[in-house]
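Hi C.,

You asked whether I'd gotten around to modeling the 667-residue construct. I have! Everything is below, sequence then structure, no commentary in between.
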Amino acid sequence: MEQQQATAPRPDGRRTGAGDDPAAFVGVEQAEAALVEHYPRLVRLAYLVLPPTLGRNRRVVTAHAVVQRALPRRRARVQAPVLPAQRRPGQPVTTPGYAFVRLRVLRAALAAERPRVRLPVVRRDVPLPPLPPLLPQVWGLRLFPHSGGADELALDRTLSALPGPARAAFVLRDLEGLGDADVRAVLEAAGAEDAEDALAAAAGTAPPAGSRDRSVLESPEFDPCSLQARPTDLVRRRRHARAALAAGAAVLACGALLGLPGGGWGPDGAAAPPYAENAAARAALDPYRVTAAATGAWRTAVRRDFAAWPARGNRTQDRDLLRRALAVWARPGPDVQVSATPGTAKGPAAGPPQLLYAGVVDRAAVVLLYDGLRVVRYAEPADGSGAEQDSGPRAALDFARTDGAEDGSAAALVLGRSDGNVRYLTAPWVRDAELADLLKPAGAARPLPIGEDGSTGPVPSPARTTDCTSWQALRMGGGLLTDLGELVPARLTYGPPEQPGDPAGPRARSAWARTACHLGTLRGQGVRAVNDWEFAQQQLPAGGGSAAWVCTRADTWRGAGSRTFAQIQTPAASGRPYEPGAVVARSEGGPGCGPRHPLALAGVLWKAPGGQWWLVAAGSGQLAEITASGGVTGRAAGSQLAVPAKAGAQVELSGLLGNGVPVSGLE
């Protein structure tokens, strides 16, 4: 009976709700009772209507704040027809108290998309940046709703593409069960613009069918009252707590300099507070004292390295950008993502660095700086807003050690990575570049365009792939470079350790085609160059064909930390002419297969086509004898050995040079 009275038809054909009765009032106690009883549903409604750009953690906290602030401070009047003609099973009874609180929640959630404040002086509304809610706040935790299935993910993406009023209309229709007339009335009462367009957009958005008996909007994916908790950065939080207790006044001053949370860049961007005021520090932070090589200086330079690169890019005169890059380099703040190759110092520059590039690359403003020992890459959003996002840091800072770089090892630098691709800045002496797939040595290389500022087009990066269906490399002036996930691409060479050269011939390209898939183990190690050296060719016993023994050595920019592995490249199976070779021995940090120790010795248990196991071993040409001991014994003059063996036997190899000096194999 109560429901029928609340939805009696009006003369104009619409149904009358409690909000149309001019005498209908809602007291604070009645509103509080409705809020407490339906709190989870109201928070879910606010969470769905709030802008998705807030991020899941901030949207959860804001949804709770919106609902808690919906409680009126005094007796208020219901002003919107919000009582539906029918109520679906499991949905709350639309009492005047619930309708009133829901309207206030909806109005606040829509206003959060474009917050504004009215200035009495000018009598106009002024937009405000999105600010975090005052209450509630959760310290030390990040909160997220539980993950849903494919249906929830698809619906979340669909809602993210809708404007706020359309999201509200969709939620009122699907979650609250209101008819179109009631939805239109609620949106108009909440102050939404273009209620008709919002209703049309919501009607054109169909939720996934799913496999449940309930609405997809009622799934855990959209439940901000059932949450997962993860900690924030504990070490940083403790450090900040100690700093706040020791120097509260200094923290307030720094906060004023850096600007309000969620606002634009301060004078020094995402940098931390100043740490020193000496002359050298000030010089390193002055964007007007940044040095630059003259155009064409590389033509007469004693050594062609990064010091001979001119400053390029369309923002080399943007002093504000350079100031932020220098300040963040000197003192990266907590909102800066910092990375460095192993063995690279992360400290500030000793004086004014050299500018190599400043420009926009794939929606990011990028600055490349060089101090004689390191190349530093700074990146920030291209629009310069610096707004902190839940999804990532405000700026990035990458360090790479480059001391001793020359010509081939100073041919390119990484400008940016996006969507699995990488863009390079080429040296000024590079006139053309090609893109070659190492796994297809017989295939033709593809030209790679180079812009007027020296930047290349997007190149598929093998540094982030887990499979090995292709391995792209850059060919510049005969040299071969590949991306190993660092700022400086690694140079690939082929030949004896004393005089390695560029992989130019068919034999060199074939060796690298069967080695390329092993480069994934070298990612992030600060690798400067990788050399392939075929130290032996061996005729396998029992008619197994001819095998190549290859020693691959990766040298680093820091000198220490080199990696060496030996592989045997047996005749490939039919249809796979460039199958990766089998790694039979590894060594870290030693001089093996390098210019200081150009020797190699390795062996492996090999199964012949007939099923017989053999110990096959080979060394570089200087060896006069090879001896096997342990599970298999044998000795052979020269640099090759083949002895029958049993599966799983443990063998130790040793060799002798012609002068009697012993040689041990790679382990």
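If it helps when you're writing up: The two ends are 88 Å apart (CA to CA).

Thanks,
B.
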